[in-house]
Design goal:
The protein has 285 residues and is mainly beta. The protein has two helices and 13 strands, in the order H-E-E-E-E-E-E-E-E-H-E-E-E-E-E. A hairpin with a 7-residue loop joins strand 6 and strand 7. The longest helix is centred in the N-terminal third of the chain and has 24 residues. It is elongated.
């Protein structure tokens, strides 16, 4: 009796081990990565009273990278997004005799809860954190030609995507606004020199940010025209930023045409395999 019991237990253990190995080798859920590389060009307006009370107007150029993926813990309902943005502005004074350059680099990460409204329409909303670094440079000022920019914020973002077809060509439309709510940002006194900061006069240069002294609205509107796994992305990107500290006001706005390439990518380990019950959950399309 004991021998038969031991044999039965060993048989059950071998069966469970084989089943576990099969589950490990096969993929139940695939979370493809949606990536996009874009270039942007458009108009820019800059007013920074630390450098000049005048409004400078000109052009803006930028490079953007974006990455979407469904979250591992609940891929059908939660998605994440990484955005990296590098921009260059070239503007002129109203008299067109002085130039102001703007340099900016930003990185943000967010996680959003997704809601399926219809087969084609999906909505998402969640929190975002971002880090921004940059500077303005005036060709006229000799003593203080630069105004440095730095901020870290947390805020809200939302997204609406809609999938449709024009004949047999699938297209994905997307609108996404972003609004920071709190954080910290760098701002000098009105006549404070950066040499003084270098020498240790750092009192009052960091400020708690909120929508009344640091307001930024980032709007993205894109259309992905999909050709298989790769898509042509075209759209609009608008950013308006306004800061107020130490009686210094800085307003910057850009309106850009977006063009680039996007697509979904799946990376599989050689030991894994796709079966009939494998489910592919896209974070974007």
């Amino acid at each position: 009796m004991n021998r038969h019991l031991i044999i039965s237990l060993l048989t059950a253990l071998v069966s469970l081990t084989a089943k576990a190995s099969e589950d490990t080798d096969s993929l139940r859920i695939i979370r493809p990565v949606t990536s996009a590389y874009t270039i942007e060009a458009g108009s820019a307006k800059i007013t920074d009273t630390y450098l000049s009370p005048l409004k400078y107007t000109g052009e803006t150029f930028a490079f953007g990278y974006e990455r979407f993926q469904a979250m591992k813990f609940n891929p059908e309902k939660w998605i994440m997004q990484l955005r990296i943005y590098a921009g260059l502005d070239y503007t002129e004074s109203p008299a067109q005799n002085v130039n102001m350059w703007g340099f900016g680099l930003s990185a943000s990460w967010d996680m959003m809860r997704r809601y399926t409204v219809t087969d084609g329409l999906k909505l998402a909303a969640g929190g975002i954190t971002s880090l921004n670094l940059g500077a303005l440079y005036s060709t006229r000022n000799g003593n203080n030609p630069t105004s440095a920019k730095a901020s870290w914020n947390v805020g809200l973002t939302g997204m609406a995507t809609y999938n449709l077809k024009i004949k047999s060509l699938p297209i994905t439309l997307r609108y996404q606004p972003t609004l920071p709510l709190a954080g910290t940002f760098f701002a000098t006194e009105y006549d404070q020199l950066y040499y003084e900061i270098y020498r240790g006069d750092t009192k009052g240069i960091m400020h708690f940010s909120h929508p009344f002294n640091y307001f930024q609205l980032d709007n993205v509107l894109t259309a992905d025209i999909r050709f298989g796994s790769t898509a042509l992305r075209i759209g609009y990107h608008g950013i308006f930023t306004s800061t107020k500290a130490h009686h210094i006001v800085c307003n910057m706005s850009t309106h850009s045409l977006v063009i680039g390439i996007s697509g979904e990518w799946i990376s599989l380990h050689s030991s894994k395999k796709i079966t009939d019950d494998t489910k592919i959950i896209s974070a974007y399309y």
